[in-house]
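Researcher: Good morning. I'm working through a list of sequences from a screen, and I'd like to move beyond sequence-only analysis. For each chain I'm collecting a predicted structure so we can compare shapes side by side. This is the next one on the list. No need for commentary yet; just the structure.
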Amino acid sequence: MYLIYPTIGFVRGGAQTDKMGERILVVDDESDVCFVLKEVLSEDGFVVDSYKDPLLALSNFKAHFYSLVILDIRMPRLNGFALYREIRRLDKRVKICFLTAGEMYYGYSDIFSSVPAKCFIRKPIDNEELMKRINEIMVDDTTILWSSLCDENK
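Model: Good morning. Structure tokens for this chain:
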């Protein structure tokens, strides 16, 4: 298990599952968080690409390539909500969730109404809870349907 407390470090353990080949994109401006998420998710069988720079992540994003995108909300140059909008323009079917330290954001009511509450993951979070949340999101096809319906109604 890796604990997502990047300033403290991490503890290793865990097991491989049947998720081989499912790709996840992680975008967080903190390299420690990218590293830990990549390790935890890879250990669980996911193939993970991670970027510290949201603009670089966007320029390398491939539509219909990822099963899930995990975005930090607070990032320089392009915050997670703005990146969400850009990714959603390119791929309406990819599942997207957010990492948040619990900050309040104004001016993004369209995103809050188009993303289920379970897709907002508060940091710090322990690995077991993180994987539980990620697995719930991955198997829930209503996450895609809800986002697509909300995007179509704009």
